[in-house]
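This part of the workshop introduces the protein records we will be handling. A record pairs a protein's sequence with a compact description of its fold. Comparing a sequence with its tokens is the quickest way to learn the format. The record below serves as our worked example for the rest of this section:
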Amino acid sequence: MENAFESAIFNSEKDKPLTWFFKKKDRLSDLHPDMSDTMIDMKILRKCGGELEHAIKFPESTEDLKDPVLNCHKCGSTSNLANTCTKKTKINGVQVIEEAKCTEEKEESDLDSAVSENTPVEYYPIENITDFFEVTEVHTHLPQYSEDCDNLINIQDSRMCRTKPARGKGYTAGASCITSILMNDIEAKVNLDTGAFCTCVGKDYLQAILPGWKSHLLPIKCVQFSSDSNNMYPMSILDTNLVFSHPTGSARMETEMIVMDNCTSQHIILGNDYLNIYGIDINNHKDRYFTIGENKRQRFDFLNMPKEISGISSIRDTYKEEFVDNQLVEAQINPSL
């Protein structure tokens, strides 16, 4: 058996490598049970011939088998990748890269070949682009502007989010922007008035909710304020905090409101000054609410105010008084009733 092992040499044309190897290994294991696997492999390797033995012992260079070096395609560094890059290229940044003349010519030739390969067979001239794409895809993203000589185009009916009231009853769909707050741990009402230039409060309402308000005043310079009906007379500036309560976390605002002498509103008027400073957005889409700052998930609700707040009841009371004084006074009631 040992002579048969020594005389057998691997022939690549006749022998199958796997079958021949295990057959030789089994013979050596039977002849030399104490021989290690390394010695068995060396003895079998000598039976493979000089060229095969040399090729196995001295393989070719493994430079091509090395892992490729990964570079960040934003900054070119090898220490990080694009998802963790801290030196990302700005979107509208301009990069000036000076390259050799031969490199530029090579890039131009590669670009020409890429364009020729990716260019479709059919060409669509610019004249074939319809006005529909121009109006809906371009003009809708432009800022709103108006000129006297400009012709209005593409006029569409606005979509209503709620049911439209009956004709002549449109005023009944109105809703107030009044909500409740805490001012110095005292509950008060505030109106988010987008039509008001600044935040103000009447002295009578301030006296009702904050009796010691005169100790929190700041001086005011000679300025003039006016409303649609009459002039407003400022007294001083009240420096205070307004807290908007919410179950998930309340929001506190540092405000300076002007105390008006002749303001009769029974609430604080939060004007555009602090609506812009704190980024208060009022949503009228489906559910009416407002948000403060960048946290759009935290929604604050408005109060469900009765119709007396809107002034409709006062008009009805006037009509009722005129009816009682002028017409009902002449009516006679049957004694049997």
Summary: Residues 90-100, 121-139, 308-315 have pLDDT under 50 and may be disordered. The CA atoms of residues 165 and 173 lie 7 Å apart.
